[in-house]
Design brief:
With 206 residues, this protein is an all-alpha fold. The protein contains eight helices and no strands. It has helices at 9-22, 25-36, 42-46, 64-74, 85-103, 137-142, 145-182, 195-204. Helix 1 (9-22) packs parallel to helix 7 (145-182) and helix 4 (64-74) runs antiparallel to helix 5. The protein binds zinc ion.
Length: 206
């Protein structure tokens, strides 16, 4: 997995892309928590549940199905996060589902049960540039933690910030263009009386 420090980069990208109105601070905090939540299955790992088990690490909680289920439940309390139900659903679903996809781009461990609960088959993405982080906190600090964090900076934080910033720019352009379309049109040249016609009318009616 990328570390718990890096999954929340997705929450930041969603805020940058969708803007403060659709994703207020409370929803950013919720999205950051949801982006890390799938690793709650590490409890089973420490309790002796096999890694490859249906409920083992990178199992059900790492699937898009779990993300949609969680989004459906949490969006019922949308008012607490000062956002619409639709915003909370989409943001929570994307933040939670992104966890499994980022894990699938790591260089180690077992694959991700992306089709769970319908199949426990484990998947990786074809390209896995993110250095895998140890599951235990002690293991993280005893190992090449700086290398892992540097890898996440390059392959998680920078791309997420770039994608969020570009999406935010496109959204602003789209809003401005929609505003221009709604604005009253300037009178066309045909509607404006040319100077020569005005002068002739003046002469005729003098
Ligand atoms: Zn994970």
């Amino acid at each position: 997995m990328p570390t718990a420090f890096s999954h929340p980069a997705v929450a930041l990208a969603l805020r940058l892309g969708a803007g403060a109105r659709a994703v207020p601070v409370r929803l950013v905090a919720l999205a950051a928590a949801c982006s890390v939540l799938p690793d709650v299955d590490a409890i089973g790992y420490w309790l002796g549940l096999p890694y490859g088990h249906y409920l083992g690490h990178r199992g059900l909680t790492h699937s898009p199905f779990f993300a949609l289920l969680l989004a459906g439940v949490v969006s019922r309390s949308a008012a607490r996060f000062r956002a619409s139900r639709r915003s909370v659903f989409v943001v929570v679903a994307l933040a939670t589902a992104s966890h499994g996809l980022l894990d699938a781009a790591t260089s180690g461990g077992l694959g991700i049960a992306l089709l769970s609960p319908f199949s426990n088959e484990r998947f990786f993405l074809p390209w896995r540039p993110i250095a895998v982080s140890p599951i235990s906190v002690i293991g993280f600090f005893q190992s090449r933690s700086l290398w892992v964090l540097a890898s996440e900076l390059v392959w998680v934080w920078l791309p997420m910030i770039a994608v969020g910033a570009v999406a935010g720019l496109l959204r602003r352009e789209w809003v401005l263009a929609a505003g221009r379309r709604r604005a009253p049109q300037e009178p066309s040249e045909r509607q404006t009386e040319p100077e020569s016609v005005r002068r002739r009318n003046y002469e005729e009616h003098r």
